[in-house]
């Protein structure tokens, strides 16, 4: 079976994320090899949480500007499920338990971005966001919320300015069909609900 082996790496950029230049050896089944250079974005693992209100059964989404989308020239804010990084303190507080660290990050991000309190948090799966370029693993959750406990809107010191939207499941599906929701992680979670929990939301 073929195999890829890391030979060397050096840092090209160290900022909000870290960009590494890696040197790989691709080993083929026939014994031949090929040297490859690949840029790797060393990004922190993150969480994404699709919220729904217990009382109205409406989905709670966020809308915010994202630098890569502006850079691409798509000059509009991104509608998405609540998301954010798992901080180092989350791992330190939950040593040897990555899922517990992810849950702690999910609770914090939901409160910061939306102001809602999570009543029940359900873990779905952990997936690589973009395995061709980034190391980020994204932990997917759905959660019910029961009361507003703070204003939300994100952390201004981190450059966030987040609006909170509430839509029905059918309205969310229409927004995907019309190209108004184009964030992959959000589409994955909305389709999960459409496939597995649609009766609850009808």
Automatic annotation (TrEMBL):
Alphabetized SUPFAM superfamilies for the sequence: Nudix
Cofactor list: Mg(2+)
Keyword check for Hydrolase: yes
This protein's name: GDP-mannose pyrophosphatase
Swiss-Prot/TrEMBL catalytic activity: GDP-alpha-D-mannose + H2O = alpha-D-mannose 1-phosphate + GMP + 2 H(+)
Domain Nudix hydrolase: 42-189
Superkingdom as given in the UniProt entry: Bacteria
Quaternary state and interactors: Homodimer.
Family: Belongs to the Nudix hydrolase family. NudK subfamily.
Keywords associated with the record: Hydrolase
Organism: Commensalibacter nepenthis
Any one GO MF annotation of this record: hydrolase activity
Keyword Metal-binding: no
